[in-house]
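Exercise: predict the fold of this chain.
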Amino acid sequence: MPKLKTHTGAAKRFKKTGTGKIVRHQTKTRHILSSKSPKTKRKLGKKVLVSDGDYLKVARMIPYA
């Protein structure tokens, strides 16, 4: 079997935790922040886990992470 290639775009966006879960950053944090409440901006700054439906797709893109 040949080696698998890592999707470099996905490698920059996702990271595996020590237990094998995949974390990602949240969207809507780049611009138009003046209309968002401080509470919303604070929550959007945290990392979240990739959903169960997307886990296999993302895991296939970062095989050696």
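Check your answer against the key: The mean pLDDT is 97.
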